[in-house]
Amino acid sequence: MRKKVIPIIVLVIVAGVLGILINGMSGKASAIPGDEAIDFQLKDTEGKEYRLSDSKGKIVVLNFFATWCQPCIDEAPELEAFGAEYEGAELYIIAKGETKKRIEKYKKESNSKLLYLLDTKEEISKKYNVIGQPETIIIDENGVIFERFSGPTTKKSLIEIIESIH
Fold first, then answer.
1. Which of 5, 55, 117, 154 could lock onto 42 through a cystine, CB 3.0 to 4.6 A?
2. Which CA distances in Å does 146 have to 58, 90, 125, 130, 142?
């Protein structure tokens, strides 16, 4: 009798785990080139709210950033130059898991003029399936993800990708 119960218990546990995995994965939105960008609403360090859908009709560059990430810090001067010089796209730096205080300190120390949106609980990062940083997502005027890549980028590379959209 006992020999029959153990396999049944193992089978029930395995089925339960598989059910949880399948259920969890089925509700996960995709965020790859060709997909519609997932709308979000985040606040900047001043408390002003930004909604991605308010930028429809414009090209948007999302850059997922963290102050403790050395490749992010290395990439920052390129993003600063892009943000200051290129007017063909909106640049949102998504501060992944960062507090307002840490971003304010970083902005002051680095003299950054970029717009940082606080994703303190990493809710938007998770929706976009961002695991590391820096990660960049370029969204076209129709709200569709055009390009996505991990690792540092340059002003030149961003401009080339954006200008290839047209």
1. 117
2. 13, 14, 18, 16, 10
Task: Report the alpha-carbon distance of residue 139 to residue 159 in Å, rounded.
Answer: 13
- Structure tokens, 52: 């991605």
Q: What's the half-sphere exposure (Cβ side, CA atoms, 13 Å) at 159?
A: 12
pLDDT recorded at residue 166: 73
**109 in Cβ contact with 140 (< 8 Å):** no
User: Is 133 within 8 Å of 66 (Cβ atoms)?
Assistant: yes
Q: Pairing between strand 90-96 and 60-65? A: parallel
Tell me the per-residue pLDDT of 34-59, one tens digit each, with 9 for 90 and over: 999 999 999 999 999 999 999 999 99
Helix (H, G, I), strand (E, B) or coil at 92: strand
**What tens digit of pLDDT does each residue of 104-128 get?**
999 999 999 999 999 999 999 999 9
